[in-house]
Amino acid sequence: MPRAPQARKKMYVLDTNVLIHDPNALLNFEEHDVIIPMTVLEELDGLKTGKQSVAADCRQAIRTIDRLLGDASPKEIERGVPIVRAKKAAPLGSLSILMSTEHTGNHSLPEHLNDNKIINNLASLQARHKSRDIILVSKDINMRLKARGFGVEAQDYHNDQLIDDIDLLPMGYKVFKNSFWDTIAKVETVQREGVTEHILRREGELSKLNINEYVVDEQGFVGKVVDLTEDRLVLQDLHQRDLMSEEVWGLMPRDIYQALALNLLMDPEVHLVNLTGSAGSGKTILALAACIEMTVASKQYKRIIATRSTQGLDEDIGFLPGTEAEKMEPWLGAIVDNLEALHEDDENMTASVDYILSKVPLHFKSLNYIRGRSFQHSLIIIDESQNLTPHQIKTIITRAGNGSKVICLGNLAQIDTPYLSALSSGLTYMTERFKGFRHGGHIHLQGVPRSALAEYAEANL
């Protein structure tokens, strides 16, 4: 019997933005060869200094390359150094550095741009290795288009892309038309410490539910998944009227989805809450009201740390005058706006907001200053988290120390970072990764309750 032909080993050439997006990217190409152009090393070197978050990612990428190359000689690096991922594991694939070469003639791009230098080097590499598949990996769409136009195969970096369609992302709840109980053949109901729980077989639509997700129907039933196994799940019976009338720091939910979000935010057993939704759906005001309630009223937490990912913030913050808190104020105006909205019915709104800011230990932090810190008994609000890479979101969430809670807010339709899309965003990655986490929850807020004008603009502009 003839042996099946082995798949051809490929040569993947990594662009700078891939190593910034994921500093450990070169470990994720299995048995294939990984090539780093010299131009990429130069770009990493130029970006490695400073306090921007990109500088820390560059330094980590450089350290990973140095560790893998070890004390290999220049000749060995040119041929390719075997990539060892663990001490006892056999090496898979190789890592090499592609030297810049001079190009003459009409078949090369002008080399005043680093992107063009890399594409020219790939074209030369392709001419030398006609029997190998040589692929450029870049997060830059235009770079990929230029490479394809020049005859070089190019693709996006998909290793941390867990889903193929954003519509497959969990919503945090399942809405049933009419009555949920019409779809259930058998149920066992128990009363435990004043709580009603329904034990159901995990089949049909129920098989798709995760821990801390909700069941909602048009008849007013709301259930929360509090436990599940392979073949059964336990729904805690929540009363919709109670959820809708629960007041948190003077804030009442405007719809059932906001009520579910507040239920998650106020749950002491949930340590990570992830709220997504369009502009004006209430993400920030819900998070802020719950955080003030839990620090001032119930004193479950010691402080609130608010931060956000904003394109340009890393570069601009250093040039703003004042302390770190004063530098952050222009970027965190949304927090103050929502504080004012919470107290708009007070006799003196300005005095109320000033009182809250003096009473509540609310700290505005730049993402750059969160690296290396550990926050105990804190509420950490990460606004605009759709602009973070999976690596960055991991860096921030791992800062949560003992007794802390992380609240991520974001809108996947408003990504401002050039090399991210809704599918490759750290917010998408985290939502998918944490859907089975017992102490985590996610709600996608519906509608635009901000105003009739905002709702009409969202739908028609």
What does this structure look like?
- It is a single chain.
- By secondary structure, the chain is α/β, with parallel strands linked by helices.
- It is 33% helix and 20% strand.
- The chain contains 17 helices and 18 strands.
- It has a six-stranded mixed beta sheet with strand order 3-4-2-1-5-6, sandwiched between helices. Strands 7-10-11-12-9-8 form a six-stranded mixed beta sheet.
- Helix 2 (38-47) crosses helix 3, helix 9 crosses helix 12 and helix 15 crosses helix 16 (426-433).
- The longest helix has 17 residues, at 53-69.
- It is globular.
- The model is unreliable at 1-5 and 312-320 (pLDDT under 50).
Secondary structure blueprint with pairings:
Blueprint: E1 10-14, H1 16-21, E2 33-37, H2 38-47, H3 53-69, H4 74-79, E3 81-82, E4 94-98, H5 114-128, E5 133-137, H6 141-149, E6 153-155, E7 173-176, E8 187-192, E9 195-201, E10 214-217, E11 221-228, E12 232-239, H7 240-245, H8 256-265, E13 272-276, H9 283-297, E14 303-308, H10 313-316, H11 324-328, H12 333-342, H13 349-359, E15 362-364, H14 367-370, E16 378-383, H15 390-397, E17 405-410, H16 426-433, E18 440-444, H17 452-460
Parallel strand pairs: 1-2, 1-5, 2-4, 5-6, 7-10, 13-17, 13-18, 14-15, 14-16, 16-17
Antiparallel strand pairs: 3-4, 8-9, 9-12, 10-11, 11-12
Helix pairs in contact: 2-3, 8-9, 9-12, 15-16
Features:
six-stranded mixed β-sheet; 18 strands
Helix content: 25-40%
Shape: globular
What summary fits the major beta sheet? 6 strands, mixed
> If you average the pLDDT, what whole number results?
86
Estimate the strand proportion.
15-25%
Quote the distance from N terminus to C terminus.
64 Å
How many separate helices?
Answer: 17
Low-confidence stretches: 1-5, 312-320
- Rg of Cα set: 26 Å
Strands in their spatial order, largest beta sheet: 3-4-2-1-5-6
Which structural class best describes the helix and strand composition? alpha/beta
Number of strands: 18
